[in-house]
Design goal:
Length: about 230
C-alpha cells in the first residue's frame, strides 16, 4: 500500500497521486507490460485501498497516455508503436529547441550560473547527469530512467516556466514507456544507452547553444535508431 503521511492521515487526493505514481513506475519498469489488462478492483485489492482513489489514479494515467480505458474490461497498458516514438521524438525536439532558442535570445527567466540560485541548481543538474551516466554505462535501464527524468525536470526548472516543466516531463515519461516496451527485449544494455547528460548540462551552463543542440540531435538519433532496431525484432 502507498505510504501514508507522517501523521497517519492520507487525503484522497494524496492517495490518488501515490497510486498513480506507483503504477507509472510499474509501467516504466516493465512490470506492467504493453497490453496488460486489469480492473479497478484488482488494483484496489493489491494496494489495500478503496476503489475511488484507484479509479481516479487510473483515469489520470489514461489522460497522460499511459493507459487505455475500456468501459467493460477496465484498463490496459497502452502499447506504443515505433511510429508513435517517432512522433514523440519530433515533439520533444521542438520543445527542447524552443528552450535553447529562448536561452540564446537571452531568456530573462533562465537561472544560469550568474544567478546564485541558478548556480546551485546547475550543480544539482550536473550531479544528476553524472548519476544518469553511470546507470547508462552499466546498462541499468530502470535506474537510468529515474535519474533521467529528474535530470530533465531540474534542467527545465532553470527556465522558470512550470508549464514547460510539466509538459516536458509528461512527454519524457511517454517516450520512456515506449522505449521500455521495445528495449526490454534486449538482454544486455551496457554501452547501448545514451549517457551524455553531463555534457549537455555543461554546454547549457556555458550557454553554448550550438553544442547543446548537437548533443540533443545525436541523442534523438541514437534513441530512434535503438527503438527502431528493437521494434523490428
Amino acid at each position: 500500500m502507498p505510504a501514508s503521511s507522517g501523521n497517519g492521515a492520507v487525503t484522497r487526493s494524496t492517495l490518488r497521486q501515490q497510486i498513480a505514481d506507483a503504477l507509472r513506475d510499474e509501467v516504466l519498469a516493465g512490470r506492467l507490460q504493453a497490453g496488460q489488462e486489469f480492473t479497478v478492483k484488482e488494483i484496489a485489492e493489491q494496494y489495500g485501498v478503496s476503489a475511488t482513489p484507484v479509479r481516479e489514479a487510473l483515469v489520470d494515467l489514461s489522460a497522460q497516455g499511459l493507459l487505455e480505458a475500456d468501459q467493460h474490461r477496465g484498463f490496459r497498458v497502452h502499447e506504443y508503436t515505433v511510429e508513435d516514438f517517432r512522433g514523440m521524438i519530433e515533439a520533444r525536439s521542438l520543445v527542447t529547441d524552443g528552450m535553447f532558442q529562448a536561452l540564446d535570445d537571452g531568456h530573462k527567466g533562465y537561472r544560469g550560473l550568474d544567478d546564485p540560485r541558478g548556480a546551485a541548481a546547475v550543480a544539482g543538474v550536473l550531479r544528476r547527469g553524472e548519476e544518469a551516466r553511470r546507470a547508462a554505462d552499466a546498462g541499468d535501464l530502470t535506474i537510468l530512467i529515474g535519474y533521467d527524468l529528474r535530470f530533465w525536470r531540474e534542467l527545465s526548472v532553470l527556465f522558470g516556466n512550470p508549464y514547460l516543466t510539466d509538459f516536458l516531463q509528461r512527454l519524457r515519461v511517454q517516450t520512456w514507456v515506449c522505449t521500455v516496451q521495445h528495449v526490454r527485449r534486449l538482454t544486455d544494455l551496457r554501452g547501448r544507452l545514451w549517457s551524455r547528460h553531463t555534457d549537455l548540462a555543461a554546454a547549457l551552463a556555458d550557454r553554448d547553444i550550438v553544442t547543446a543542440r548537437t548533443i540533443v540531435s545525436a541523442y534523438n538519433t541514437h534513441s530512434l535508431e535503438l527503438v527502431e532496431r528493437t521494434g523490428q525484432g
